[in-house]
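Would you mind writing out a protein's amino acid sequence and the numbers that encode its backbone to help me picture the idea?
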Amino acid sequence: MTDWSILTDACGSAEHVPGLLDRFEADPSGVWSELMDHLCPQLDTAFSASFAALPRLAEIATVGSPETLDWVLLAAGAIASCSPALSESNSPLTVFSAPIAVLHELTDRRLSRTADAEDYVNLLQALLSFEGVEIWDRSLDGLQSGEYEVGCPCCGVNMFVVIGQDDSFCCTDDYALSEVQKSPLQPART
């Protein structure tokens, strides 16, 4: 049994988290924002209560509707992405490996039935988080927007790489703010 009184969330004591999880189960879309404010603000910070909530989130995902499942996987994936690496002792990904395995299985199954590109990217990020994959679990957002900001590996200049339905190019200035010189994307030479 989890002693929530010794755990913390973004607001301090986590004694209220079981009730918050109950409310989330009853109304996932209505409570998701509040849940994440407490357990994973900005989707990039987690607390002891965040990881302790993973077993309950796995339980909710298992018995909930497909819509509930989507909200749970978004929440649990964000929390898992904040975990220290698997190689670290007492990594939450190891401590909570059983519920994470359940969440991974549900995510993998849901991913295979998802046609919407945005949902697919969100689920893929969650799946990578559950696998302990660092960097890519948080670096796929550009697939949704079609825009990446990267540093040139040769000279270090920041570049925008845009991959769109109508146009694909790279440039060194913010193309959204002004007219810029656009260079077409070229295949890598080996």
Remarks:
- The radius of gyration is 19 Å.
